[in-house]
Amino acid sequence: MAAQVETVTVLFTDLVDSTGLGARVGPERAEELRVEHFRLLREAIAGANGFEIKNTGDGVMVVLPSAAAAVECAQAIQQRHELRNRRAAEQLLVRVGISMGDATRSEGDVFGPPVVEAARLCAKANPSQVLLSNVTRVMVGRRGEHTFRSVGELELRGLPEPVAACELVWASVRGVTTPLPPRLQVLPETAYVGREDILARLSQVRQLALDGARQVVLITGEPGIGKTRLATHVALEANAEGATVLYGHCDEELSASYQPWVQALRGLVEHAPMEVLAQHVSAHDGELCRLVPELARRLPNVPAPRVSDPAAERCLLFGAVVGLLQCAATHGLVVVLLDDLHWADKPSLALLKHVVAHVMRAQLLVLGTYRDSETDVDHPLSGLLADLRREPGVEWVALQGLAQPEVESLMAAAAGHELNAQGLELAEAVRRESDGNPFFVTEILRHLVESGGLVQADSGRYVVTAEVAELGIPRSVRDVVVQRIHRLGPEAVSALGAAAVIGREFDLELLSVVTERYEDDLLAVLESAVAGSVLRESPQSPGRFMFAHALINHTLYEDLGRTRRARLHTRIAQAIEDTAGGSIDERLDELAYHWARGQAASFGKAISYARRAGERALAHLAPDQALRWFTQALEELATAGEVSAADRCDLMTLIGEAQRQSGDPGYRETLLAAGDIASRMGDGERMAKAAIANTRGWLSNVVDVDAERIAALQAAIGALPAGSPNRPRLLAQLAAEACFDWDFTTRIRPLIDEAQQLARNDSDKHALAQVLTLVNSALLVRPDLMAERMELTSELLALADGVDDPFLGCMAAAMRFFATVEVADIDQARDCAHRAWQLSERTGQPWMRWLARFVATVIAAMAGDLELADQHASDALDIGVAIGFPDAFFFYSPQLNYLRYEQGRFEEIIDANVEMRKLAPRLSSIPARLSFYLTELGRLDEAAELLGEITQAGFGSLNHDYLRLYALAYWGLTAVRVGDRNVIAEIYDLLYPYRSHLIYPIPIAFSSAHTILGRLAGALGRFDDAEGHFAAAAVVHDRIGAPLFEARNLLYWAEMLLSRNADADKPRALTMLHRARDIAAALGGVAIVRHTIRLIEAIETH
Asked: Which keywords does this Swiss-Prot/TrEMBL entry list (predicted)?
C-alpha cells in the first residue's frame, strides 16, 4: 500500500520508573501491575476513539481523530490512574505528550515531525503531567472547557528548534462518597474475633475487586452463625479505605419487589456526585426511576422510562442498574451487601444474576448472605446459586460454629479482660451448649449477666457467682431469648410482641396506635429493650427501631397465640390505613400481608389489597411477586365463601398475565379458563382482556394452529359491545392465529381490513402499531401480497420509531426484514437486522436477543459466512431454549439444515428430518426438504415415494404459508433428480409468478427463485428460458452479495449447458464449474465443491 501524508494528532505515554518496579515488588507482581496499567490506558483510548499504533514497552503511541480527542484521552488516562492510585499501595504514575502536524502513514505505522515531537514532550513531562505543543492547544479551541498553563519554549532532544508548549491542568475526579447505610452505622459492641483464615481470604477477594475484577462472595450458614456480622465487617473495612458501601436487606413474608436493590441503590442515587448521575442518565435515560424515583428529584429533567413490552422494560431496568454500578465503580470500589437472600423475591434474585453475568471488569464487590437451611431444591435462590457456580469471580463461605479458642476470644472481648480458669471453664460450657453459634454465645452471656450468674467485681473483672454446672445455661436459642425478654417485664413483652407482628423494623408511632399506649410511655419500654440488646434504634430515623436479630423477632412472634396474632395483624393493618395518608400505595404489600393474616372478617380487604399489591408489582416489572399476590387473593376469595365470578375472572386474568411475563407456559390454560368464566358471564370486555393477554404479540405457534385460542378470540369478538377499543386488536390477533388454517380471501382478509380501519380511526399510535404487527404476521402466508407487506412494514417501522417502544421497534424491524429479504432488498434488510441487534443489546431482553441473532443468521448465511451463521443460529437456539420459547427448535431447524447441507454434512440431518416430519405434520417444507436430501444420497426410490405422496394429494394441498415457496422449490429439485416432467412443469408454473423473490421461508434464505426456475426449465428442455433465469439470478445474487447462492446458480447453469450440449456449451460450463468450485471452496461450501469436481472430472475425462 502506498504511503499517505495526512494531518494527525499523536499521543505518547510513559510509565514512570517502570524499571524500578520489578525490583520493588518482584517480577510476578510487576507484570500484574503492567497489565493493569495498559488496561487503564486502553480504556481511555477506546473512550476517545483513538487507534493504538504501537506498544512502546512502558507506554503506547496513539493516533486520535482530533486535538480535542487527544486532550480528552490524556485527561482520562490521568484520571483513571489517579482513581486507581487512591486505594493502591504501589503507585502508577504516567507522563503524556501530545503533538500534531503532517505525518506519513505506511504499513500500519506513522512517521514524521509530530511523532518525534510528541515522544520528546512525553519524555520531558513530570510524573502525572500532560505536555502538548501550542499548535495542538490552538486546535483544541474551546472544546471541552479544559485549562492549559504555558510552560514556555522547551528544548527537546533531537529537535533543532525549541518547541512552544503548555501543560494540561487536568481535573481531578471527585470520588463517589456515600454515608454508611443506617443499619451499618450501629457498630457492634465488641471487635470482630476469630475466623482469621476466612478474613484473610476475603481480604484477597477485596483486593481483586480493587484491581478491577468484579467479585461476589456468598456467605451461608445457620441462623445466628454470624453471616451478617462477617459481611458487615468486610464492608466496614472497605469503607474505612474509601469504598462506597451500599446495603439492602430482605424481610420474611414482607420483602417487596426488588427491595434489597431499592434500598442499596437509593443511597447511591441520593449521595452520588451529580456528574456521575448525569453520565448514567446520558446512557440509560430514566429507566432507573422505576426502582429509585429519587433520581428524578436529583435530576429534574431526566427522561421518563420507556413504555414497551414488560420483558423489554425489565431488561432496560436491569441494564440501568448495571450501568449505574459500573459508573460508580469507575470512581473507586463499590461494595453491595445484600442481606438475608433466602427471603428475597424472585425479581431481586434475577437482578442479582444479571449484575453478576454482565459486570466482569469493575471495582465491584457483592456480598450476599443466606441461610442454607431454608433453601431447598424448589426455593428460587437454589436456581440462582446453581447458575452462579458457573460464573467466574464467585466464592462461597460456609460458616460453622466458633472453635473453643474463638469462643474464649469472644468472651474475653466482651468482658474486656483475659479469662481466668473459671472463665475458661465457663467458655467451654458455653461452647458445648451453643455449638459455637456466636449469637447463642452472646445471648447466653447476656442472660448470665442479667440473671446474676455473671457479675462485675469492683476490679472491673467479671466473675462467675456459682459453679459452672449450677448456672442453668439455656439449651436452645429460643430458651435464652424467651428468658431474656421476660426479664424486661410484662409491659415490654406485650409491646415487643406487637412490634414482632409489625415486622423486623417498626415505627414508634405505629406501635403506639396498635398498642393504644402513649408514645412517651412506650418509648421508655423500647429504650430498656435497646439497653438489653434486644432492639436497635435507627441512627438516622428517630422513632424507628429494629430487632437486634431476626431470631428475636421470630421467637416473639411464635410465642403469641394464633388468635392474638390475628387480632394484632388486623389492628396493624387498620392503623397503617389510618396513618398512611397519600402514601398508601407505597404500603400495599404491608396491608395485603397484615389483612391476609387478620381476623376472618377481613377477607374483603385482604383480597382487595393483595390484588392491588399484585398490580403494583406488575407495574414495577416484578411478575413473580405479582403472581404471589394474585394467587393469595384468589385463595382468599375461595376461603371467603361468596365467590364473585367477576372477581375470580379478573384475578385469573391477572394471574395469567403474571405467568406470561414471568415465563410460565401455564399462562395459556389460565387465560383460557379466565375467558371461559367471562363467557359464562356474558362479559365481552373481560373475554377480550383474557384473549388479548393470551398471546406473545404475534403468531402464538408457527408449528400448528391453536384451535382453543382461535375459539376464545371468536367468542370475545362476538360478545364485545359496539365501539369497544379492544375490537381491532382482537380482529388482528384472530387473523394472525388463524392464517394457516382459514381461507385468506373469505375469512382472513375481512379481519385484516376491519382491524386496520378501526385502528386507523383511533389516535392511539401504539395500538395501531400493535395491530399492524399482527396484520403483518397474518400476511406472511401470502407472497403474492408483497407490495402490501412492503407498504405496511414501512408504516410499521415509522410508527415504532414514533412510540419509542423497544419491543415494537424490534418486531417492526423483523417484519420489515422478512419482507425486504424476500424481495432481495439487501440494504434495507441489513438496516433492519442492525436495528434489531441494537435494540436487543440496549434492552438485553432475551426474546429480542433471540430475534436479533435469528435474523443475523440469515444475513451471515447470505454473505456466505457459514461459520458466523452457525454461531448466530446456535446462540439463538440457546437463548430460545433458556427462555422456554416453544418454537425455538423449529426456527433453528431450517437454518441448521441449510448450513449442514452447504457444508456437505447432510447425512447428519436426515434422521432429524424424519423425526420432525412426525412432530410437525402440518409443516409442508419438511417432507420436501427430506426428499431432496435423499436424492443427494442417491436414495432416489425413497425420494420418489415422497414425491408421489404429494403428487397424489396435489400441490394445491400445500398450506398457503411462509413455507410454500420453499416447499415448492425443494419438490421441484427432487422432481428434476427423479425425472418427473409433469411435476417439474406444474411446479414451474406455480413458482413463476414469484420469480423476482428469494426462496425465503423466514428462518433462512435459499436462493433467487430464478435459480430454481432455471433448473426446472432446463430439465424441461426449455434452454433459452433457463438461460434467462440463470442470468437474472446472477444479477440478483451479485446485488445482494450472496456468493454461495451464485455458486449453486453457476452449478445448475453449467449442468443445463452440459445437457443442451450446443456449440461452446461445454467450455462455458467448464468455466462456470471452476468458478463455482473456487467460490464454494473459499467459503467452506463442501457440497458445491463435491458436485463441481465430479462434473469437471467427467468433462475432462471425456
From this structure: ATP-binding, Nucleotide-binding
Q: Residues with Cβ < 8 Å from 641, sequence gap 6 or more? A: none
Q: Give the Å distances, CA to CA, from 251 to 46, 370, 553, 615, 677.
A: 43, 12, 11, 20, 36
Q: What is the pTM of this model?
A: 0.73
Q: What is the residue type of 743?
A: D
Which distant-in-sequence residues (6+ apart) come within 8 Å of 676 by Cβ? none
Q: What is the SS3 assignment for 504-550?
A: CEEEHHHHHHHHCCCHHHHHHHHHHHHHCCCEEECCCCCCEEEECCH
By CB atoms closer than 10 A (0-12, 13-18, 19+), residue 711 is middle
pLDDT in tens, 382-405: 888 988 998 999 999 999 888 888
Task: Give the C-alpha separation, 394 to 366, whole Å.
Answer: 9
**3 state DSSP class of 772:** helix
Q: Which residue has the higher pLDDT, 241 or 1070?
A: 1070
Sign (positive or negative) of CA dihedral 247, 249, 255, 257: positive
Query: Contact at 8 Å (CB) between 364 and 209?
Result: yes
Model pLDDT for residues 787-825, shown as the tens digit of each residue:
999 999 999 999 998 887 888 999 999 999 999 999 999
Tell me the CB-side half-sphere exposure of residue 531, using CA atoms within 13 A: 10
Higher-pLDDT residue of 643, 878: 878
User: 607 CB contacts (<8 Å, ≥6 apart)?
Assistant: 633, 636, 637, 640, 647
Contact 380, 414 (CB under 8 A): no
Burial 139-157 (b: 16+ CB within 10 A, else e): bbeeeeebebeebeebebe
Containing H/E element for 64? strand 60-64
Q: CA geometry: angle at 229 spanning 226 and 230, to 5°?
A: 85
Burial of 703 per CB tally in 10 Å (0-12, 13-18, 19+): middle
Comparing C-alpha atoms, which of 705, 752, 760 is closest to residue 732?
Answer: 752
Distance CA 735, CA 751 (A): 6
